[in-house]
Specification:
The chain has 171 residues and is of the alpha+beta class. It has one domain (5-170): START domain (Alpha-D-Glucose-1,6-Bisphosphate, Chain A, domain 4), CATH 3.30.530. It is 40% helix and 27% strand. The protein has four helices and seven strands; from the N terminus they run E-H-H-E-E-E-E-E-E-H-H. It has a seven-stranded antiparallel β-sheet with strand order 1-7-6-5-4-3-2. Strand 4 and strand 5 (72-77) form a beta hairpin. Helix 1 (15-23) crosses helix 2 (25-31) and helix 3 (112-142) packs across helix 4. The radius of gyration is 16 Å and the shape is globular.
Length: 171
């Protein structure tokens, strides 16, 4: 089995706001991929769409597996018929004493060479979304708007470039 992707962050937004960023189509489309997501209810099937890449048709078929509102969301990610064949995306939210939310993200279930390659390709992307894209979308939503995917992608890219420069400076 290949190691899980794990990222954590603390946001200065209450769990209800973070939950909306994880469970509304408009927000997901802004920070992740275009989707036909409708609702966070167990059994709901939907798809994320992005431009195709070598070895991937650009469609991630998903199913909601577990929901505890404002606390936990688990998705089967990349299902091909049976949700048991998919990897799993877990979001766990915990309120902080100062009114914010501690977020723990885990993408699990990678296996074999294909799983290792998938993990290698996805780890940095998920990290950038957790560290940069989601907080940006949250701030924009609090201001009364949902940003475009292009805006959010640019923020994430700038953030990742900044992370890379910081790592180089520490080395």
């Amino acid at each position: 089995m290949v190691e899980d992707i794990v990222h954590e962050a603390t946001y200065p937004y209450p769990p209800a706001e973070v939950w909306r960023a994880l469970t509304t189509r408009e927000a997901l489309n802004a920070w992740l991929m275009d989707s036909d997501f409708q609702e966070a209810t167990v059994g709901h099937r939907f798809a994320f769409r992005d431009k195709p890449r070598i070895g991937w048709d650009g469609i991630s078929r998903c199913e909601v597996l577990e929901v505890v509102p404002e606390r936990k969301l688990v998705l089967a990610f990349g299902i091909e018929g049976d949700a048991r064949s998919a990897t799993k995306v877990h979001w766990e939210l915990e309120p902080t004493a100062d009114g914010g939310t501690r977020v723990r993200f885990r993408h699990s279930g990678f296996g074999g060479l294909k799983g290792w390659l998938m993990r290698a390709g996805m780890d940095q992307g998920w990290g950038g979304m957790v560290r940069h894209s989601i907080p940006y979308v949250l701030a924009q939503m609090r201001a009364g708007r949902v940003p475009t995917k292009d805006e959010t992608t640019e923020v994430r890219k700038r953030g990742l470039r900044g992370d890379h420069q910081a790592q180089k400076a520490r080395a």
